[in-house]
Structure formats: structure tokens, C-alpha cells
Amino acid sequence: MQTATSMMPRKIVVSGCSSGIGLAICQQLLAAGHQVIGISRDPGRGGINHDEFIPWELDLANLALLPDQLGQLVKAHPDVDGVVANAGRGQFGGLEEFSYAQIDQLLDLNLRSQIYLVRALLPALRQRAHSDLIFMGSEAALAGGRRGAVYSASKAALRGFAQALREECSRSGLRVSLINPGMVRTPFFDQLDFAPGDEPSHAITADTVADTVRMVLDAASEVVFDEINLSPLKKVIKKNN
Ligand SMILES: NC(=O)c1ccc[n+]([C@@H]2O[C@H](COP(=O)([O-])OP(=O)(O)OC[C@H]3O[C@@H](n4cnc5c(N)ncnc54)[C@H](OP(=O)(O)O)[C@@H]3O)[C@@H](O)[C@H]2O)c1
Asked: Which domains are seen in the chain, by residue range?
């Protein structure tokens, strides 16, 4: 007999809760009756007003402070049974356009902070009979693209991390999943010189990615979605002014 996990209220950490995909995930999880600990530098920015929303201010890119800060999170919430590691940003350009500091900053947020977050929460997750760890990868994790060397490196490495962790945890009740979206219409593109085209078919919505996260969380506990790739129907990119 399959065990459905969908009806149980859960306590789920979502990083990058203040905008775009993470905000949509938080809203859907709260609407479904879960408790959400939302991490970002400004977790109130997304305007979530819900009794079960616990804002947790954290700069994930500040690695030096992160072990202590994550320790405080685990101490306050030892009963977390789900993590959506979603925070991240895009920076694109030829490699020579990146300073060494910019390379470090992008890898620190998109890769190293994810590893730190999991390192801190893994013992608690493994103690649970059923728990979930979901990473937000990217199509850039699957294939390197022009002007995306550092971003692709961060997401491809995250994919390797998720795959290895899935093996490491395969005898426990912790399910590890990776979602790789193509272009999603979010503020991710606000600081970039390109964006998806204007038609609905040119980008995925943040709600569609959130739907996918809920599908992964709600799957029968015996089933793991190892990896899900999502693409807009049409790949159309426009220049941002
Ligand atoms: N949009 C796309 O086309 C697309 C496609 C594939 C994958 N992704 C991935 O999806 C994830 C979410 O992107 P999005 O499109 O939702 O972008 P977004 O709208 O710009 O949201 C990014 C989120 O990350 C948080 N964040 C950024 N820097 C942070 C830091 N130093 N510490 C803590 N939180 C930080 C932001 O919160 P604060 O600013 O409040 O800190 C924000 O909540 C990223 O990992 C991205 O790589 C996006």
C-alpha cells in the first residue's frame, strides 16, 4: 500500500522566499496547510502575511557567518522535515568579464551556501521517518551555454552534489530531488541584459515551478523524483534595455 505524504502538515524551509520562484513556493505551501520558514536577506519583501510563515533573515552569501547562523536555525526548529534550497542569482558574461571576487560571490551563493544549508539541516532531516530535500537547479546544470560559464559551473556542481547526496541518503527516509527549470518569468532577469520573450509560451511561471515542488513533496513516500526538467514551450530570448 502506498503512503501518501500530502495530507500531513509539515515544517518546510524555503530559501529565497522573498521573490520569484521561492515566493510562489511559500505561498502554495502555506495555502496547502504547511508551516514555512522563509530564508532571505529580506524575507518580508515578498509581502507574505500568514500565521504559519516564519521569516528568517539570512545572507546566504556570507559564508563566514553561516555555520553559526544555521546552527541557530536548527536549534530553534529541530523538527524541520523539508528543505527547498532555492535561493540563487544569475550573472552572465564572458569569463574575462568576471573579476575573481565576482566568481567567488556567485559560487558562494549558488553552490557553497546550498552545501552549508544542507550540512546544517541534514542530521535533523535524517532523523525523520520521511523528509524531503529539493534543490533548484537549472537547465544550465544540464548544458553549458554561451556567457554562462560561472553560472553553469555553479548549477552543474549543485546537480552533482544532489546526485551524490541522493546516493548517500538512499537508505534513509530522506528523498533528494533536483528541479531544473528553463527560463522562468521572475525578477531574476531584472539585473540581466536578457529576458524571456513576452509570449506566455516563452517562459515558465513561478507557480508552475511551485506546482512541481508540491508534486515532489506530495508524492507517495516510497517514490522519489530524482530529477525533473521543465522547459517553456518555445525558447525565445529578448534583449533587456
Ligand atoms: N528565473 C529563471 O529563469 C530561473 C531558471 C532556472 C533556475 N532558476 C533558479 O531559481 C532560483 C530562484 O530564482 P528566481 O527566478 O526566483 O529569482 P529571484 O526572483 O531573483 O529570487 C531570488 C531569491 O533568492 C534570494 N537571495 C538572493 N541572494 C541571497 C542571499 N545572499 N541570501 C539569501 N537569499 C538570497 C532573494 O532574496 P533577497 O533578495 O531578499 O535576499 C530572492 O528571494 C535561483 O536559484 C535561480 O538560479 C531561475
From this structure: 11-239 (3.40.50.720)
